[in-house]
Every structure is written in structure tokens, then in C-alpha cells.
Amino acid sequence: MATISLTAPLEGWVSPLDEVVDAVFAERMLGDGLAIDPTGDVLVAPCDARVLVVQPSGHAITLETPEGAQLLIHLGIDTVALDGRGFEPLVAAGATVTRGEPLIRFDLDLIVREAQAAITPVIVTNGERFAIAGRAETGAVAIGAPLLTLVAREAAAVEDASDGPTVRRAVTVALSHGIHARPAAKIAAAAKTFSAEVTLTKGERSASARSPVGLLSLIVAHLDELTIEARGVDAEAAVTAIAELLATDLDEGAPAPSPAPAPAKPRRVPVGAIAGVTASPGLAIGAVARWQVRDLDVPTTGVGIAAEEACFESARAALADDLAARSAGATGPARAIFQAHADMLADPALLDAAHRAITGGASAAQAWRDAIRPQAEALRAGGDPRLAERADDMRDLERQLIARLMGVEQEAATLPEGAIVLADDLLPSQLMALDLDRVAGLAIERGGPTSHVAILAASRGLPALVALGAAVRDLAEGTRVVLDASEGLLHVAPSPELVADAEARLAAVAERRAAARARAAEECRTADGTRIEVVANCGSAEDARVAAANGAEGCGLLRTELLFLDRATAPDVAEQTAAYQSVADALAGKPVIVRLLDIGGDKPAPYLPIGPEENPALGLRGIRVGLAHPDILDDQLRAILAVRPVGQCRIMVPMVVGLDELRQVRAALDRVGGGDGVELGIMVETPAAAVTAAQLAREADFLSIGTNDLTQYALAMDRGNAAVAGALDGLHPAVLRLIEQTVAGGARHARWTGVCGGLASDPLAVPILVGLGVTELSVAPAAVADIKALVRDLDMIRARDHARAALDCAGAAEVRQLAREFAR
């Protein structure tokens, strides 16, 4: 039975779909899954997959795993109305991607300001074939952390609904934003109610009306013409129903499409500069190094069918082996490109075309060129610029195989240090053959911003401009230029003042990056010396290893729920001890704060009987479950106490509302023989704990604020209610005042207060938290070095003034605007 592991494609906060402020997702009309409220600005692949659809507006992508599971990732809610603003797709339909490969860059601030919500559903759209066997718990998540586990279902018998009359109807699509996720879900749901096979056709492409993914793949826009065709007993009724849906604006109040914008004013290009398109942002100064590769000359006719066939197969097999070896040794985008080339090299249609040409008398090299080049040219001529850029991969593969057939080695370029490589075009294999340590930037006459060369450049942090045009042909080798890829400009005759300014900017960037890397392992202090610990939220030993590599000073929250979920019986002491010990080992003696089992509510376990609850968020969850099942609590305490060295692990009690609960856990520690010398703290997740923090701090060794639940309870907004969940924001002044009270209560008894909720990883929130007196930030493992660097730039006087101003704001939106101004 196929098992598929999906990892988090975003960093942020994992939530159930019920928290998505759109019934299409909350009611699972498109399928089941999870949602992530993002804190970063890039979406990556959750697994190796093929890209089925990238929506024209760039806000959603559909993937298919090798096993056939189809995944929809929808960045934000109602983001289709942004008409592409804030989204930069990095891949196109038909591309093969690998786990962790960047798919879409997005402007999170713009989405937060202008869309209904930034929360991003990750959906399995063909749940009839794949069941979700495991899910990440609600909480902070880093890119690459486990998210969902899928297992293939047994194939079910399919009822044939195609007998009966056939009905066709042409319609004009009235949907404001065409067929995107919401209309696709509603059309599919309607189609499934009829005993008929219904297809929608746009031009040459057709899709089953029952398949949301298929409907998305049609790329249907406002006022497009479609043909609806149904065959079966309910054909007439089905066509009528689907036609009515397409004639109605299913966006339910979404703004109508804006009128076509006025032609953009011509861009003002400074004297001595050439304008291009940003493929990878950044700044570079260097000398032009021209790189030019021409087509290899090949014999048109062969020396015999058998000889040419043998030569072709030998070269193809050698190239396939080479691509496999290079793929195995590569990571990220480079690995994806090698795999994409390997897939094309095995394409039966291309191979058949080449063999037919050899049979017709062509040489192996000419046959391969004749087979692959028309395909590349068709992609370029198709009208989709991103598909046209995939033609580069086909041209690259054409060149690689022909080079092997002709016995020609890849050209080696001799580059000066810090070169700005100038080329009319550049193929992925050519870029990877360069000594990139000597390359400062790329200036490409042609090309596009989502080509594989652009993706490779971005993955290396290499500034790159494309589509510079013929003006760059006159640049002489060795000319000193300034490449400002962020501004889309190549300064070919920079003034001394411009060069000096660019040098100063580069020095500042290099200094910040070097300082963050060099000091990642150091303890963290503000600019005026206040000690702030930056630790990591972890759920596994792998998380801990990532955290340690990024300079984490320990683990501020070890989530233990994954050990207990999706199983028939609770883990025993030995299994728990091994799991906790692996995290402790990965952190090499640094403190590990283990949160006691936080289960119940939205995280049930079959072996812990919890009856139906009208509001699980206010029911048996957190430490209440442990106290109701003392055998579970005692085993977990024994497992934590067994970790070596003694004392590395601290214990944190979730969902505390009063001293009695803390005292009961202390008594349980005594009962299992570990009451002395073990630090026992609490999570402040309820207003009750925040306002009585001074009382709790008399007996708690430390306080750690879980801002996500605290926000839910403070604002009386159920995270499971899609109608209000989108308004939850931990930067609401009411939540900030509870944090202030918690810090003050802890300080009365010399107890430190940390934050282990989502706000600790939010760069806009960190200065406010530090200004309120928080002295420990537990963040996503990959964010540790960046948060440390941010904290080191803070001045406590300014941070305190900033925090006081935030407390006086009218709402979360006002606080975020204040925080953006502070960050500047």
C-alpha cells in the first residue's frame, strides 16, 4: 500500500481546515487536509511531484505525486481577486519538482492587507483514492517539517453513468475571476449529484466536471467560452445546473473584475542603464564576462541504421546514468532540474520520433534534434510565457545528448573573480557548469523570470536580470558594471557616486549576513546588553538538529503529541524516553522544555475516551486530560526523568488556569520519584493564567506564553469557527496587555517569561515582545539565526517605547502598521 509523506510547504502556524474563513475549504468541498497561516514569503513543494496547474494569478498551484495523489495549495483566501499582485510563480504546469523546491514567492504584507485572510489550505483533492493517515498537530511549523501522511485506498468499483442521451451547450463564463478554487468546488459538487458524465471543454482541452483539479487545469477566465457536454440519464439536468452555475457569480460578493488598466507609463531608465526583468533580486558589481555557446554542427545523414541506433542508445544510456548520479548528489532546484531532464530523456514520444528519423536515414544527432526541437518550439509558440521558458530545458537536453553523440566536452569558461556573466541566453546545464563561486551576477539578453536558470540563480542568492534585449550586445568584455537586479537595472556606465553607493550597500548586506552566521551560536543580547534567549519549538530530533545548526540555545517547547496520536494505544515509557533522549542528544546538553501531553479538543486519541463536547476548546484538553488519566501522566513524567544528563529536560504544564493544577502535577512528580531538582513551569494560554500570573509564579519555575490559544480565548473567537478565525491576531492590544500582565506577574517572583507561540517567530512582533519584558523566544527551528540577528539590533529603550505605543493602539491592524514603521 503506497504511503506518501508530505512536509510543510510554508513556515507558519498549522491549523485544521475548520479554521479557514471560507466554507469551500472549511467544509472540505475540495477535499481534506490542513491549513498553514504563513509567516514567510515562499511556498515550496511538500514532496516530489509534477505540477498540474499554476493559476494565472499565481495564488494557487496543483501538484500530483508519483503515486497519483493530487494536492491543491491555495495561498490565502479570496486572493484570486488580487489579479496576480503579490505572487511570483517560480514553476509552470508540466514541471517536475522535488521536495523543498520553491514554487511561488508571495508578498505576505500585501496579502494580509488586501485579502480576506493569509491562511493557506493544503488539500488532497482526490481523497477517494488517498486517505490521510497522519496529521501535524496545531502549532508552529517550519518548512520541511512533517505535515500529512497519505495512504492509498483500495480501488472502489466505479458506477458507469454514461448510458443515456448526450446533451451539449455552449456558455459564456460569468464568474468574476473565472474558474478558481471556489467555483471549481461548487461545480464538482453539483456534477456529482447527477447520474451523468459531464465534461467542460475550452478550446482543445477538456476536463471532467467532477474533478476540481481538472477544472482548474482548463485556466478559465471571465467571459471565456466553454462547451458543457453530458451523457447519461440526467444529462439534460446536469447541463442545465452547470450552465446556471457558470452564469452566476459564485464569488459571492467578490469585487467584479477591474476594468483594463490604462497602458503603463514608459519606465524611466537612468542614463547609462539598461532595463531588464528581475529573475533573482540582489546587487552586484563586477566586470562583464561574455558567455556564448552556439549549436553544434551535426551530420545530417547516418552511416547505417544499426550503427546510428547503437550510437544513440549508448549515448542516451550514458547521459541517463550521468543525470541520475548528478541528481543523487544534488539538492533543491538543481536536483529538480536533473530529474526533469532525466524524465524528458525517457519520454517515449521523443524516443519514438528519434528512432523513426534514424530509420529514415538521419544521423543519431540529427534525429534527436529533429525529435526534440519541434517540441521546444511548440512550447515557445503556445502563448504561455512560463511554458515557453520550459523550452529551455528541452534545448538543454538536446545539446547535452548531441554533445555526447559528437564526443564534444562541455565548454569550460574562464571567469574573473566577481564576474557579471553576460549571455544571449543560458541553459541550466551551462549555468551549473560555471564556477559559480566566481560569478557575482547574471545579465541575460533573453530568457524569462521563471526559467530554470532563474530558479537556480535564486537558490544560490545570485542576482540575475533577464530580457535585457539587444542593447547588451555592445558591452565590451571586462566592462565594469553595476547589476541592480532588485531594481531591474544594469548600469553599464555607472558614475563614481553610483558605484560608491552600491559598494556601501553591498558592504552592509555582507556585514549583516556574516554577522548573523558568525554569531548564530552565540548567546543573544540586545544592542544595549539585555539577555534574550532564542530557542526553538521542536517536534522531533530532526527539528532539534535543524535548530542546533541555526544556533538555537535550546528547545523552548518540545511538542509530545505526535507520539500519542494516530495509534491504538499510548506509547510506553521506553518509547517516550527514546524520543525525548534523541532531541536532548541533538541539542548537546542545551535545555529542553518538554510540554506535557496537550491532547483533547481538536487532537483526540482513541485510547483516551473523551465524550462529545459542545465546545472542545473549552472542554477536556491540556493538563486536564493528564489529570483525568494519571497513568498517562505518570508514564510521561517517568520518561522525561529518564533522559540523561539529569536536569537537561524541564517540564511545562499546558492549559493551566490555577495553582491547584500545578500542585497536582508537582504531586505526580513526587509520586514517580522526581520531585526534587526538576524545573516545572507552566504555559500561559488562558486569560485566567495571565491575570493570575503573580500567584502562579510563586510556585512555577518559569512562564511560557502560548500566544495562539491565548489569542483565541482573549478575543472570544473560536479557532474552529471559520466565520471568525481569520480575525485572530496575537498582536491585538488585548492580547499584548495579557502578555504584559504575565511578564509583570512573573517578575514579582523573579521568574522568567518566554513566548513559545506563533508571535515569537513573527519579526514584526519580536520588538514588541522584547519591549514588554519577554526574555525567551521559542521560534521555528529555521528562524533562529534571523530572530537572533533581529534581537541584536534592538535598543531596549526604543523597544519599550514601541511596546507602550502598541498597547495604546485600537486594534491588531493598527499595531501591525506601527510595527512596520518601527522595522523601517
Question: What attributes characterize this protein structure?
Answer:
single chain, 824 residues, alpha/beta, eight-stranded antiparallel beta sheet, eight-stranded mixed beta sheet, 27 helices, 36% helix
Protein architecture, described:
It is a single chain. By secondary structure, this protein is of the alpha/beta class. Helix content is about 35%, strand content about 20%. Strand 27 (about 535-540), helix 14 (about 540-550) and strand 28 form a beta-alpha-beta unit. Helix 14 runs parallel beside helix 16.
- Kindly provide the radius of gyration, computed on alpha-carbon positions and rounded to a whole number of angstroms: 29 Å
Q: Strand percentage, roughly?
A: 15-25%
Please give the share of residues in helix.
Answer: 25-40%
The unreliable regions are 251-266, 383-387, 720-726
Supply the helix-strand structural class.
alpha/beta
Q: Could you give a short account of the major beta sheet?
A: 8 strands, antiparallel
Distance between the termini: 53 Å
How many alpha or pi helices?
27
Total count of strands? 34
In spatial order, strands of the major sheet run: 9-5-6-7-11-3-2-13
Large-scale geometry: globular
Tell me, rounded to a whole number, the average pLDDT. 82
